[in-house]
Amino acid sequence: MMMGDMTQLGSLMAVVMFIWATFRQLFPDEFRRDVRKYVNKLVSYVYPYVEITFHEYQVDSWFERSKAFVSIERYLSTNSSNKAKRLKASVVKDCESVVLSMDEYEEVTDDFNGIRIWWTSSKKIPQQRALFSYRGDEENRFYRLTCRREHRDIVTNVYLKHVLDEGKAIAVRTRQRKLYTNNKSENWHGYKRTVWSHIVFEHPSTFDTLAMDPKKKKDVLNDLITFSKSKDYYKKVGKSWKRGYLLYGPPGTGKSSMIAAMANLLEYDIYDLELTSVKDNTDLRKLLIETSSKSIIVIEDIDCSLDLTGQRKQKKKDEGKELDKKDPVEKKVEEEDDKKKKGSEVTLSGLLNFIDGLWSACGSERLIVFTTNYVEKLDPALIRRGRMDKHIEMSYCCFETFKVLANNYLDVESHELFGTIDRLLGETMMTPADVAECLMPKSDEENVEICLTKLIKSLEDAKEEARLKAIEDARVKAEKEAAKTKDENVQVSDPKLDDKVQVGDAKEENVTLTA
Ligand SMILES: Nc1ncnc2c1ncn2[C@@H]1O[C@H](COP(=O)(O)OP(=O)(O)OP(=O)(O)O)[C@@H](O)[C@H]1O
Ligand SMILES: [Mg+2]
């Protein structure tokens, strides 16, 4: 009986195949396409559903996954992974978490405002390999949304926006944040060229571990959080959604740590821009275009990156004497800096345009942060409000700063030695980096008391050093002044000058002597 059924089925299939082969031979492609078109039309009159398809790769961009597809994948992974029976797993965040998404040919439902929506995942396998396509022989996956025809408007206008926004938000929450650095302009060419290289960003600094005046810290925190929520506000006032921060202060006061804390707070990527590797203003613009939203573009030590102080420097060089007196090591560092800067043709105006020219409006939700040890060296145009909207001074360690560090490094909120430390911090200037180094236990035996005593000793040494330096400075200054007065006296009694005075008339004599 069974055998008979199988034979019948086999014959039926053979007949169907034969009819299909004959149909394909007799009717050309165009005819078959027309038939399909009319059949589809006919079906659409009676079919009560609407279908929308989202492909993984668009025809015009085979290298980049469609953003809509990625957002839908993320959305369905959290909203429907419980319901789908077959799931695909991908690992993110350095094996820390697993993202589940629907496997191929699965169907799930989603309920939105009382409307039922069906999602299916599928893939299209190309029949022939495309000649000039890198991806031509690969399958193109897609998601298909199905809803009732009467819900079409609400699905296309409201539901889809909800899916895409939610998917984007999930992607941001689960992504690995990155720290980018720009490649040298000369290496941008060829296949697989990239202007930025990246690693996973894993800096542990946060606003809790950052030691600074609590009022100032709160102010910065509020500023950042308000910025991140102000998309509509920026649109309303006609500004592109970006904000500039200038962090200035002596080395070791926490400027770089603050940038990391900012990125961790807002969950942004960091683009660390090395200006000396950028050939010219055009390349600078290219780099800007290739940065993503939700990011911080950082230029560290901006005063060293670009010759923004060219005129002042030139003046100094003209003085000649000053340069000759310089310490040879200092001179060498300066020469090397100059050489580096000469490799780049980026100009001040190029940089100004980078920050707030027309191109800077591409992308959104971006912070631009400059750091410097010498704020007074920067061109005022570069740091005016609107470019660098918020100026934050990172200064030497005060008692409030110390308390945060003591809590971080020693888990201590008060101690009898705090009074001495408070007094000493008011009398000397020590950076948070130096204070942190004293507070860090170097062995198991070093307890709170030992570490605080170490800090007191270090503060006393620094105070003594500062006192000796002040005396030495005063001595050098007095010597210089004495030498200057001596020079002036010599000039007035210079015999050559006297000759000049003698040959000139009385009027001229007065001028020369009083000059
Ligand atoms: N305000 C601070 N809060 C917490 N830690 C700090 C602070 N300032 C400095 N440190 C500690 O000192 C080290 C150096 O700090 P950081 O690199 O942030 O200084 P910087 O101001 O960027 O210095 P530079 O101007 O030389 O780049 C950090 O690793 C951090 O541990
Ligand atoms: Mg730094």
TrEMBL record:
Keywords from the UniProt entry: ATP-binding, Hydrolase, Magnesium, Nucleotide-binding
Catalytic function, reaction form: ATP + H2O = ADP + phosphate + H(+)
Gene Ontology molecular function: any one: ATP hydrolysis activity
AAA+ ATPase domain ranges (all copies): 241-398
Biased composition (Basic and acidic residues): 316-340
SUPFAM superfamilies from the UniProt entry: P-loop containing nucleoside triphosphate hydrolases (SSF52540)
GO terms of biological process kind: response to stress
Domain of life from the UniProt record: Eukaryota
Region annotation Disordered: where it falls in the sequence: 315-340, 480-515
Cofactors, names only: Mg(2+)
Pfam families for the chain: AAA, AAA_assoc, AAA_lid_At3g28540
InterPro entries the record matches: AAA+_ATPase, AAA_N_dom, At3g28540-like_C, ATPase_AAA_core, ATPase_AAA_CS, Mitochondrial_chaperone_BCS1, P-loop_NTPase
CDD domains: RecA-like_BCS1
Similarity-based family: Belongs to the AAA ATPase family. BCS1 subfamily.
Annotated protein name in UniProt: AAA+ ATPase domain-containing protein
Organism from which the protein derives: Mikania micrantha
